Amino acid sequence: MEKRKLLGILTMAAAITLSGCAAGENDEATPNNNQANNSAEEDSHQGGHGDHSGMDMSGSGEVPEGLKEKENPTFEVGSNATITHAHMPGMEGAEATIVGAYETTVYAISYDPTDGGERVENHKWIIHEEVKEAQNEPYQVGDEVEVGADHMEGMQGATATIDSAEQTTVYMVDFTLTDSGEEVTNHKWVTESELSTEE
Fold first, then answer.
1. pTM of the predicted model, to two decimals?
2. Per-residue pLDDT reduced to its tens digit, 1-17
3. Into which CATH architecture does domain 68-196 fall?
């Protein structure tokens, strides 16, 4: 009789434990789904270029050694243009003042930040002169390089994969974010195809 009683208690305890585990699994699944949704939302807000929250949008105005100024650029230094493609919220549609125009190869890159942050996909842009110990010839899609630029936290010193490469004119620009009114100075970089003449 006591054996039956003990067996009943053990069965009941096992059932409670199993139901508790199942509830725990469900509880854990929900935050993961939310995290996935949050990541997708962040990506959509960033135009599909990864999380740029750590980006230092303003710069010192210094340019990498060896970078050549563009002669007779489409957008002259001191002129105004409209930013037509956004790397982050508040850029698209902003009126930019051209601070510098340079001829180089520009790269979109993907990399794992050195500070342990989430992987950055298709970051736009770094230029050839911002690759550490860069070779003379432009890099090709799929090549791995060490980044010398520090546009974002954890970028400098990271090993990056080249997602795209284009020989073009890049511009350093000043502009005001359309969503916050924050002034950005000496922003690096905007390509010629991302600007248009104001009408």
1. 0.72
2. 454 554 455 444 444 44
3. Roll (2.30)
